[in-house]
Amino acid sequence: MGNPPTELIRCARAIASGEERNDYAFVVRDGTIADAGDFKTIHERNREVPARAFPADRLVIPGLINGHSHAYQILLRGWADDMPFEQWRDEALYRIVPKLAPEDVYWVFVAAFSEMLAAGITTVVEFFYLNGGGNAHAEAVINAAEATGMRLVLARAWMDNPKAPAEFRESVDQARTRTLELRAKYPPSTICVAPHSLHGASEEMLRAAARFAREEACDLHIHVAERPDPAGQISALDRLGVLSERTVAVHAIHVTEEEKDVLASRGARVVYNPTTNLYLGDGIADVSGFRRRGIPIGLGTDANVKPSILGEMRAASYLQKIRCRNGQALGAVAAYRMGTLDGARAVGVLAGDLTAGAASAADFIVLDASGVDPWSPARNAVVYRAEAHWVRATFVNGRRVYAGQPSPLALAARSELAALARRLQL
C-alpha cells in the first residue's frame, strides 16, 4: 500500500492517555507516533512536517483493538441465531466454514475487515482454524488484511480432535511445520500459535504448542472456560505447561478464584467477548476480578454478530455492573482502556494510544463529535453512546484506510458474499 505518510496531525479535540486534550498534536513518521503533545510545542519541533488538522466537530482517539475474532462467522449471522451452542456449532459453523475455498475466505475477510475498519477497529487478532489442507486459506486472510489495510495478528489454530471437521484438523508435525512456513514468509509478529482448546487439541498438541511459543517467542492464544467444566480448565492447562506470560486466555468465564490467581501468577492475559458470550448464552466473565489481580484484559468481537469494539466496551461495562450489582464495577475509564491501551497490552501489539513511545503505532480514528453532549466527558460518550456511524475516518500506520463510506473493494466484497451465500444456500 506504499510508504506511510509523514504528517503532523493537529486535533482540536483528542483522547490521549485516556484523557481529553484540546489542541493536541502528534507526528506520524514511518507508521509510528514519533512525537506528541500540545500543538504549539509539537509544531515548533516539527516545522518541516506537513500538517493535517481536525476541527472541534471531530474527536480523534486511538484505533480500537479487537483481541479475538472468527471473521468467517459473519456468514452465520441472521439464519443461525437463537440456537443452543452445540447445535450452532454442529449445524451452522461446521456445516458452512469447511466449504470455503481460499478465494471465498479472501472475500469474506475483506468484507469483515472492511466492516471493522468502518467501526474504528484498527487491529484484529484473527483466530483461524481452517488449516487442515495447508496454509492457502490462512494466506487468503493475510492477503485480505493487506488489501483493506487492517493490522492483523493471525492466531493460527492447531486442532486434532477427531470429532472436528477434517478441514480443521492437522497432526502436530503438520501444524508446527505449516506455522513455521507462515512465519518465514510473513513478518513473524503477524503469526502466533493458537491451540484451539482443551477439547479441540490433544494433550500432545497442547504441549507442542506451548514449546512452539517458547521457542519462537510468540504468543499462544487459546479458548478457555467458555462453557462450564467441573474439571477446571485453567488447572489442566497449567498442569500441561501451557500457561505463561505468552498465554492469552480467550473467554475465561467459568474460572474459580484460585484459577484467577494462577492466571495472574503465570503472567497470562485475557480477552473477553461480551456480545458473543451473551449471544451464545455462555455467561459473564469476572472482569473486575481479573483487573484486581493486575491481569491485562482486552475485548474481542468473536462471532462478529456486530463487529464493534465500541459496542463491546459498553457491553463489558453494563454486564459487570449487573454481575457485581454495583454501578461502579467497571466504569467508562476502565472499559475505554479495555478497547484501546489495555486491549493492545493483552494481545501484545504496540498500539492503543496517541502518545510517542512504547505504544506508538500511528493507528487512530476520527469520530463525529456532534454526538458528544457539551457537558459530557468525551471518553464517557465514546463508551456509553458511540456507534459505528460516528466513525468518519480510520487510519492504520498513519495511512487512511476508511474515509466515511464503503470503498470499492468493500462493495465488491459484498457482491461476492451475495453470490457465495446463494451457492452455500444460506
Describe the structure.
α11 (309-324) crosses α12 (332-339). The chain folds into two domains: 7-62 and 354-408, Urease, subunit C, domain 1, CATH 2.30.40.10; 64-347, Alpha-Beta Barrel (TIM Barrel). It has helices at residues 39-45, 85-96, 102-118, 136-148, 172-185, 203-216, 233-239, 257-266, 274-279, 287-292, 309-324, 332-339, 341-347, 378-384, 408-424, and strands spanning 7-16, 19-29, 32-38, 51-54, 58-62, 64-69, 121-128, 151-158, 191-195, 220-224, 247-251, 269-272, 297-299, 364-368, 391-396, 399-402. It has 426 residues and is an alpha/beta fold. The model has no long low-confidence stretch (mean pLDDT 96). The strands form four sheets. A four-stranded mixed beta sheet has the order 3-2-1-4. Strands 5-14-15-16 form a four-stranded antiparallel beta sheet, covered by helices on one side.
Quick one: overall form? globular
Strand count, sense and barrel status of the largest sheet are: 4 strands, mixed
| Category by helix and strand content | alpha/beta
CATH class of the largest domain: Alpha Beta
Distance between the termini: 34 Å
Q: Report low-confidence residues grouped into runs of 5 or more.
A: none
> Can you give the helix content as a percent range?
25-40%
Task: Summarize the model shown.
The chain has helices spanning 39-45, 85-96, 102-118, 136-148, 172-185, 203-216, 233-239, 257-266, 274-279, 287-292, 309-324, 332-339, 341-347, 378-384, 408-424, and strands at residues 7-16, 19-29, 32-38, 51-54, 58-62, 64-69, 121-128, 151-158, 191-195, 220-224, 247-251, 269-272, 297-299, 364-368, 391-396, 399-402. The chain is an alpha/beta fold.
